[in-house]
């Protein structure tokens, strides 16, 4: 059986844990050479070792998506290591503080938008020029990019903006053969979500109440969507905002 990403090169930001780590593993399993990027070096190298132990080919690059020079260096490192860049999954993100709009500190709001929105912008700014026809970018947004998320205004606003940025980049590059899509996960069982639920036990109850499947999603389920979007099987898919949320937005 042929591998979906055989011979392709890829980079994944926020690859040290959660959706990013699962995506990097899935890409390597499907034959891609993967550049893992994360601000956390220890966890990032743990993810790298896990992929290598499974027989995959990968590298790790420590960087912060809010720093333009580091983003540029990441893309250059991926191109140098693999001879080009075919796929990118811009996954790095944070939830930020919880609270009503009027109670959020400006510095905290800006930190969320810097990582979740500016980080995606900077990644695409340098990924697109490094790509050729047939390449694919996937931005990890959220179900919060479609609907309001009370008490998470900065997160919600940043994810709405990522969808607009994704659609614009998709249209701009439609004739270049570079596809740009977004995945909008629902409530996925990641360290970030676990931390939020640990801070406030009522969060999990609230989440499951609004979840038709009555369970959290798995990072691997989001990763499989990213694999497909970056494969040649999705060759006519661009500008899409794909929900992977167990029907939460459809309810």
Structure, explained:
Helix 5 links the parallel strand 5 (136-140) and strand 6 (179-185). It contains eight helices and seven strands. The chain has one domain (9-187, 221-244): 3-Layer(aba) Sandwich (Rossmann fold), CATH 3.40.50. The mean pLDDT is 95. Helix 3 (68-82) runs parallel beside helix 4 and helix 4 packs parallel to helix 5 (153-172). It has helices at residues 18-29, 41-53, 68-82, 106-127, 153-172, 191-199, 202-209, 219-230; strands at 9-13, 33-38, 57-62, 87-90, 136-140, 179-185, 241-244. By secondary structure, the chain is an alpha/beta fold.
Can you give keywords for this protein?
8 helices, globular, Rossmann fold, 251 residues, seven-stranded parallel β-sheet, alpha/beta, 44% helix
- Return the structural class: alpha/beta
SSE sequence, one letter per element: EHEHEHEHEHEHHHE
Radius of gyration, whole Å? 17 Å
Annotated CATH topology? Rossmann fold
Largest sheet: 7 strands, parallel
The level of helicity is: 40-55%
Mean pLDDT: 95
Would you spell out the secondary-structure blueprint of this structure?
Layout lengths: L8 E5 L4 H12 L3 E6 L2 H13 L3 E6 L5 H15 L4 E4 L15 H22 L8 E5 L12 H20 L6 E7 L5 H9 L2 H8 L9 H12 L10 E4 L7
Parallel strand pairs: 1-2, 1-4, 2-3, 4-5, 5-6, 6-7
Helix pairs in contact: 1-2, 1-8, 3-4, 4-5
